[in-house]
Amino acid sequence: MNDEVAVARPELEEAARRAESRRGFLIALPAWFYLTLFFVIPLGIVAVYSFATRSSTGRTILGDWNLNAYRRLWDSLVVEIAARTLVLALVTTLICLLLAYPLAYYMATRRPMVRNILLILVMIPFWSNFLVRTYAWKVLLGSDGPVSQLSQALGGEPIRLLFTNTAVLIGLVYGFLPFMVLPLYAALERMDWGLVEAARDLYAGGWTAFRKVTWPLSLPGVMAGSILVFIPTLGAYVTPAILGGAKTTLAGDYIVSQFLAARNQPFGSALSMGMMLIMLAATIVYFRWFRPSGRDL
Amino acid sequence: MSVTAGIRPKSPAERLLATNSWLVFAFFYAPILVLVVFSFNANDNVGIWTEPSLRWYREVFQDQAVLNALKNSLIVAAISTVASTILGTMAALALERFRFRGQKFYDGLLYLPIIIPEVTMAVMLLLFFAQGFQWLDSTIGWSPTFGLGTISLSHIAFNISFVTVVVRARLGQMDPRLEEAAADLYASRWQAFRRVTLPLIMPGVLGGALLALTLSLDDVVITNFVAGPGSTTLPVYVFGLVRRGVTPLINAVSVVMLVASMILVAVSFGFQRDPKSRVEPSSRS
Amino acid sequence: MSDAVTLQGVSKVFGDVYAVRDLDLAIGDGEFFSLLGPSGCGKTTTLRMIAGFEFPTQGSLRLHGVEMALQPPNQRPVNTVFQSYALFPHMTVEENVGFGLRMKKVAGAEIVERVRRALDMVQLTHRATASSKQLSGGQQQRVALARALVNEPEVLLLDEPLGALDLKLRQAMQTELKDLQERVGITFIYVTHDQEEALTMSDRIGVMNEGRLLQVGTPQDIYEQPTSRFVAGFIGEINLLPATIVDHESVRLAGGRLVAATTGAAAGSEVTVAVRPERLSLFGLGETVPARLNAVRGRIVRRVYFGDVFYYDVDTPDGVIEVKEENRPGVALHEIGEEAVVAWDPAATTVVES
Question: CA angle, C213 as apex, C212 and C219 as ends, to 5°?
Fold first, then answer.
């Protein structure tokens, strides 16, 4: 029996730890490799393209690097589109919050049986095909669609909502509302309702108890839901493409048109980079200040 | 107490809450309902109701373009679901059970495809494939084209992250002592994974796979960018039709896609219910 | 008697914190050995090193003479009963118990037979096909025991296995565990922070604090002759009075009173005198206190009724002393505010470092 070999020493412990670490790395490797190839490199290419030049025929010349594409980001048209997109995203988020909070509160305060049924009722639209759900509004809002027909049947004017900002707003709220309800519900359901009772016991009225206890405790859910609605709304493409019109161009459409119509890849790349930076900023703000307690991400 | 609670007069606030909730649910379901009703309308004109019929469903299943797009969708969904489930589960395991160099970076990298707007990712992949194909052509003379391959590769790229998040949540709930117990009972690393970890995280893996399947079957934006001629998927095909207008045929296709979504929801509830309902009520004895 | 487990100079460092420092310990074959200490004292880390879940940073760990310090857990002839049992929730009771044997590739028929015997031993034959999630806490505990013992390990490691049970069940399981250990004759290493468990079940106890093994001995040794202030204070209730050594037979308490106690420390050094409350008696001022007893006078400031006993707090010049008096005829009842004398046998006095 050779004790020299088998007795623990710091370097052997370290070697074992390193072998374990290597094992983890190897398991992580395939996904890492895949994402490097199909995500990191593509991201790099977009970054590179944003400094390239567009030839008169619409080809991209890799060389003659410049900041022209970024300069165009300050064009009044681009600023207008960005502002419209931002306002629309904020309004959508706010409306979703106003609709979803009472709903989530209502759900969380039901009996478990009712709660589960309501949860399923929210999950169904959440999982349903987004394109189809948006299309349903096109059917509803069309000039000879049910909404307009109903208005006329009641003796009113035909309603022309399709291809307006309002239609896009309705579509976005409809599309992303479940993304707001679910995190809010999760936060409220997890909450210790004993705390609300404690507040009531300490002479807080119903409204005060809500303001001082329920609302602050549900803030992580509010933030998570807001980020889940705000970010995809900023980049929305399908909804405006279906429900919006020529005068309602949003950032998403605009970027797509740079590639599929205008064939200005450097400018489209610069737009993408700009949008990505806004998202990253929003996400970082979220994780810095409203990081959901508990798990380390 | 509970009896009196049931007949307690409801406060105005409570009533307001209930009204809001039912209005939101009406908002959720009314458009879907209208769509379903109109899909059974016999008339060529969407707005004018004549009589119920299955005419448009018959047309859907005779429309070669729709069937072709459907086939493409299923192929891409199958490939990307399987690949991303395997890669995502491995990534979740590595992140949740190991400590390795570059882990923080890896973790952040995995979140990016979720955070990044779809449009941006579509742009990235389009330029990547275009550039890559050009490079392959000039170096080894192989010139692949856009098609089901590029669509599948792209779907895997965004699905990995979603699978990882779902599987990781499940792994996080699992008591790591169970793996130690397996090792203590003479199981090798692989046996412990195969016999203990995998069965226990299976609902998470299946849930992740289902999410990947749904995302793949729903994707329009990215697919639209990386599809080639003749390789359109169903959502992209429908998207093209929808942009042009509202037709009874689209109504019917839409309802078919909705039904597919519903089936997936039902299946997912099946996964989630299974372990819970078996474990929770019986664990107190 | 050969040693089942030998640890020599074992240390475990996490980052730059010593979880276990320079541990030397030999545990005999067939012994019921408890590692006792507060949470974070290193007892669980020690157990996990023996199981193989952690590798020591330094030192030698032998099982029946075979060096095992760096062997993975699945290659060690030891089994563990986990704190929360760690039963596989997706398996039945039988499948849980048979898991180790299946991993060791024992023949099918033998597995069936051994699982049956193991379940019989813990009286759970009737629950063999139940899902492990359907069991009560006590039953889960028994399955965890059977799952470990069925493999006939050289050493059984138990990590606070009774912690999750309620008091009544815990007391019943203590007896059952001890009986079981005597029947199977396997070495048990039992980690606990509960001194009562350690005292009632163990052949020997090792008391740990801050990564160090402070004292190893029989329950009586540990309780009656603590060698350190920590061990004295951690186990049972005790009065700790600051004092100064006078000579080999006496120490002077802080209040100036000279009491008899046997010590080896040098005259003039600061020490602590430790006396258990149940070793103290209260005498009224009118009573005569036997001359051979140590005696301190004070005033009763508190009396707490515990049913079978009374606790008195007596304020003396040497500090507040807690006295435990039995509640039975013949033992005088004293009132709060009364002057009284606290007296004890010099043999019941332990002197530890200050």
Answer: 150
Contacts of C108 (CB under 8 A, 6+ apart): none
pLDDT of residue B273: 58
Name the more confident of A278 and A43. A43
ipTM surpasses 0.95: no
Chain A hits for C48, Cβ within 8 Å:
none
Query: Half-sphere exposure of residue A244, counting CA atoms within 13 Å on the CB side?
Result: 22
Please judge whether B265 and A149 are an interchain contact, meaning their C-beta atoms are less than 8 angstroms apart.
Answer: no
Please name the chains neighbouring C, where neighbouring means 3+ C-beta pairs under 8 angstroms. Answer: A, B
pLDDT, tens only, A257-293: 999 888 899 999 999 999 999 888 888 887 777 655 4
Alpha helix (H) ranges present in A75-164?
Answer: 76-108, 112-127, 130-141, 146-153
- Cα C310–C316–C321 angle (5° rounding)? 40
The CATH number of A75-289, from 2.60.40.10, 3.40.440.10, 1.10.3720.10, 1.20.120.1760, is: 1.10.3720.10
Residue ranges of domains in chain A: 3-49, 75-289
**Do C301 and C254 share a domain, yes or no?**
yes
Q: Does one domain contain both C116 and C190?
A: yes
Q: Which among A134, A138, A123 is positioned nearest to A172, based on CA atoms?
A: A134
CB C272 within 8 A of CB C353: yes
| pLDDT tens, position by position, A119-145 | 989 988 888 889 999 999 998 888 777
Q: State how far residue B107 is from chain C, nearest Cα, in angstroms.
A: 23
- Signed CA dihedral, B244, B250, B251, B257: sign only: negative
Phi, psi values for residue C80, rounded to 5°: -120, 140
**Contacting residues for A155 by C-beta, under 8 A, at least 6 apart:** none
Compare C107 and A4 and report the one with higher pLDDT. Answer: C107
Q: Crossing angle, helix A165-190 and helix A215-234, to 10 degrees?
A: 150
